[in-house]
């Protein structure tokens, strides 16, 4: 399985011959100016919530790749109104797709669409791909709801926000690894804007001291999971 980071909370998983893109926000991110969004293809686009730093490039990428967009009901409705044809609305719980079962889970955050309309509830996702369990938390604060995922899944990787201010910070993400019973974290939602600046080397070292792994690939970098 391949993981490619595009900045903020945008990344792509390549697994089982499919490309899964999450929370596409690239063109508005000065740190990702070297990424050509015209070259990005996806089979599925999963959207955790409606904030602009998670949906800004969804229309272009969805239309150029004819990806199936998967989002909470209210966000899916907004995306459809933007002219995207292939949109599937979901809510919390398990949903069946041709790639398998998607579990949509609680996130402690807020959600509105770019036009100010109601964005429903924010969410995270658990996917089972190539024999691995991957949890993407979306934008969330630390919550004991995460303990439930340890009962339901044996997580191989947790993709967690670590920038603080709007979401968990590095310390809270470390606590989350204990709730989730997951040793390997990929950090997202950091360094894009001044309030979420962190020291990446210090963050990695903090995880290492707790015998955990924090992966922070560069924007545009692909790693093997």
Q: Can you describe what's shown?
A:
The mean pLDDT is 97. Helix 4 runs parallel beside helix 5 (170-180). The relative contact order is 0.15. This protein has helices at residues 52-55, 58-65, 73-81, 146-152, 170-180, 200-209, and strands at residues 2-7, 10-15, 18-22, 44-47, 68-72, 87-90, 93-97, 100-106, 123-129, 132-136, 157-161, 184-188, 213-215, 222-224. The longest helix is centred in the last third of the chain and has 11 residues, at 170-180. A 7-stranded mixed beta sheet has the order 6-5-4-3-2-1-14, with helices on one face. It has a 7-stranded mixed beta sheet with strand order 7-8-9-10-11-12-13. The protein starts with a strand and ends with a strand. With 225 residues, it is α/β, with parallel strands linked by helices. The chain contains 6 helices and 14 strands. It is 22% helix and 31% strand. Helix 3 (73-81) links the parallel strand 5 and strand 6 (87-90).
């Amino acid at each position: 399985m391949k993981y490619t980071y595009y900045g903020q909370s945008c990344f792509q998983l390549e697994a089982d011959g499919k490309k899964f893109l999450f929370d596409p926000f690239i063109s508005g991110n000065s740190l990702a100016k070297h990424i050509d969004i015209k070259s990005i293809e996806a089979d599925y686009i999963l959207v955790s919530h409606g904030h602009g730093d998670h949906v800004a490039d969804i229309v272009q990428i969805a239309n150029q790749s004819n990806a199936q967009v998967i989002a909470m009901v209210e966000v899916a409705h907004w995306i459809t109104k933007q002219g995207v044809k292939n949109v599937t609305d979901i809510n919390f719980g398990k949903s069946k797709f041709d790639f398998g079962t998607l579990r949509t889970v609680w996130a402690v955050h807020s959600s509105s669409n770019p036009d100010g309309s109601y964005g429903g509830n924010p969410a995270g996702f658990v996917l089972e791909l190539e024999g691995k369990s991957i949890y993407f938390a979306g934008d969330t604060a630390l919550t004991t709801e995460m303990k439930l995922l340890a009962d339901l899944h044996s997580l191989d990787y947790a993709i967690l926000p670590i920038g603080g201010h709007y979401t968990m910070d590095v310390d809270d993400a470390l606590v989350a690894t204990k709730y989730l019973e997951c040793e390997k974290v990929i950090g997202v939602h950091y360094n894009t804007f001044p309030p979420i600046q962190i020291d990446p080397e210090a963050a990695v070292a903090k995880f290492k001291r707790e015998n955990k792994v924090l992966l922070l690939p560069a924007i545009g970098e692909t790693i093997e999971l």
